Fold:
Amino acid sequence: QVKRGSDLSADVFPNSSTVRIADLAESANITLTIRDDILPEDLELVQVVVTDVQPSAYGRVSAVSAARTISIAGNDDYRGVFSFVADSLVVDASENSSVTLTVQRAGGTFGVAHVTYTMTQRGGSSSPQSDTVSFSAGVDVGLIVLNLPDDATAEGFELYDVVLSQTTIGRIGLVNSSALLRVEPSDVAAGVIAFLPTQGAVTISEAAPATTFNIPVRRYAGSTSIIGVQGKVLNSSDDFIVDTAIAAMDQDQTTPSLQFTLRDDAIPEPTE
Structure:
């Protein structure tokens, strides 16, 4: 029998069987298979125990050497695989606030883990900053809290990469091991003008006699003045009736739109 404690082991097959020793032979082999159950498990110790001899007239179970121990190493990422959850892959924030990034521990949660992360500004001159997020045994979620002080310096958009770089146990995930922190402009009295961070590609179609469409912009950081914003469609050729738009922003106004007009030229064209 193959036992884990007082119970038959579920990880070893067969866990109970009979081995035949031929006439005049002194030994026989027991062949066991370690089952892959896809469950994270720490180091396991199981015992192979001789429980009976038949016919009893031909032998008996030794009182001192009828058991052997098998060590099964930890398996199936039993100490955890660390990565950011989906909601923490891209996070928007502003100065004078804090933001929380969530790190998940997939697989097993055996042991205490300390995961190092590094925050680096894209295009910045400051040195990368590193710290750790810790996981107690049995815990599968850790939180990284980043504080963003108000430095009273006029700044545009800032982008920071937060990367899980190493762990004391377990491993860093092959995907979702980095997050992007987008910090809005700050301390600019008249504001910083930009397209919305969520604004992707704009898809439009020609329609007779023309198609008018709007693209919103936003004023970040400040809104103390009346300003004008101009936008231009590059390489517009003859497809646009209006390829340059101007939007006025009153004081405290933050989200106007630029309006453009596409002509219907009745010429078959592929996607442009």
